[in-house]
């Protein structure tokens, strides 16, 4: 009897150890499998999460790099004319008045200012988009807020890019206008010099003003009479030169 119990005990013990070993192995494998299915993800607020299932993404979620391409790809505006005044969006473009012409100097100054403002606007847009590194929520409330904010940051980018493109398109006309202006101004200056020289040749240089009656008085009065006659041409030439100089903007 004792031998049968010993034999039975010897048979049961190895089987028990075998089952325990198998359970341990299966449990370890299960833990490994479970660990392999853990997901780490970051939500739109920057908080880190761990889960056994991947985060649910909206079908309409847009990658950040695509957002940048859509919103910083350059000007999407074209200049419009309202009552004769050109605009880029709400940005008023320079409008010469009284038959004036835009000069290259004015255009270059405007382009420099607009470029600096455009760069600051782009930086503000980038700072707004920076926290949204991967995806933004497409729920109605958040999507509406995102679109409104994005439009607000994007607006000056589009307007100043439009203005720069407009000014660059005016450069050739301004160059031709500069050349015509320089030619016209040079002629007006030359005409003034000729008229002044002719007056001095006929009337002489302005004499010393008289302090008492005598020859000085007579000479000065004669010079005044002469310059009133020939000085009219000088005044006309000077007026033309001033008009040419005022034609630039």
Walk me through this protein's architecture.
The chain is mostly helical and 249 residues long. It folds into 3 domains: 2-51; 64-172; 183-246, no CATH class. Helix content is 66%, strand content 7%. It is built from 5 helices and 5 strands, in the order αββαβββααα. The chain has helices spanning 2-36, 64-71, 104-129, 140-203, 215-246; strands at 39-42, 48-51, 80-82, 85-88, 91-92. Strands 3-4-5 form a 3-stranded antiparallel sheet. Helix 3 packs antiparallel against helix 4 (140-203) and helix 4 (140-203) packs antiparallel against helix 5. The longest helix is centred in the last third of the chain and has 64 residues, at 140-203. The protein is rod-shaped. It starts with a helix and ends with a helix. 8% of the residues are buried. The model is unreliable at 1-13, 28-36, 58-75 and 137-141 (pLDDT under 50).
Index terms:
5 helices; mainly alpha; 249 residues; disordered N terminus; two-stranded antiparallel ribbon; 3 domains; DUF4124; rod-shaped; DUF4124 domain-containing protein; three-stranded antiparallel β-sheet
Q: List SSEs in N-to-C order.
A: HEEHEEEHHH
User: Can you give the mean pLDDT?
Assistant: 74
Q: How many E strands?
A: 5
Give the radius of gyration. 44 Å
What is the domain total for the residues?
Answer: 3
The shape is: rod-shaped
Percent range for β-strand residues: 5-15%
Enumerate the spans where pLDDT stays under 50 for 5 or more consecutive residues. Answer: 1-13, 28-36, 58-75, 137-141
Total helical elements? 5
Q: Order of strands across the widest beta sheet?
A: 3-4-5
Largest pleated sheet: 3 strands, antiparallel
Distance between the termini: 124 Å
What helical percentage do the residues reach? Answer: 55-70%
| Main structural class | mainly alpha
Pfam family, one: DUF4124
InterPro entries: DUF4124 (IPR025392)
Protein name: DUF4124 domain-containing protein
Domain DUF4124: 32-62
């Amino acid at each position: 009897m004792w031998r049968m119990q010993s034999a039975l005990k010897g048979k049961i013990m190895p089987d028990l150890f075998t089952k325990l070993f198998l359970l341990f192995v299966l449990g370890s494998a299960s833990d490994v499998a479970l660990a392999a299915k853990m997901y780490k993800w970051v939500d739109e607020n920057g908080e880190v999460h761990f889960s056994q299932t991947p985060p649910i993404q909206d079908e309409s979620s847009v990658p950040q790099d695509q957002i940048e391409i859509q919103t910083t790809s350059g000007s999407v505006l074209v200049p419009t004319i309202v009552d004769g005044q050109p605009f880029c969006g709400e940005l008023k473009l320079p409008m010469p008045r009284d038959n004036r012409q835009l000069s290259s100097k004015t255009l270059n100054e405007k382009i420099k200012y607009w470029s600096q403002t455009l760069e600051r606007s782009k930086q503000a847009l980038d700072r707004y988009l920076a926290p949204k590194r991967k995806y933004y929520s497409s729920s109605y409330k958040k999507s509406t807020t995102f679109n409104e904010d994005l439009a607000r940051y994007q607006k000056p980018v589009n307007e100043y890019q439009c203005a720069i493109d407009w000014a660059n398109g005016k450069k050739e006309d301004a160059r031709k206008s500069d050349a015509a202006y320089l030619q016209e101004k040079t002629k007006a200056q030359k005409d003034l010099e000729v008229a002044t020289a002719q007056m001095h040749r006929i009337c002489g240089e302005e004499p010393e003003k008289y302090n008492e009656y005598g020859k000085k008085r007579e000479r000065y009065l004669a010079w005044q009479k002469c310059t009133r006659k020939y000085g009219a041409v000088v005044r006309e030439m000077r007026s033309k030169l001033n008009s040419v100089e005022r034609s630039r903007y």
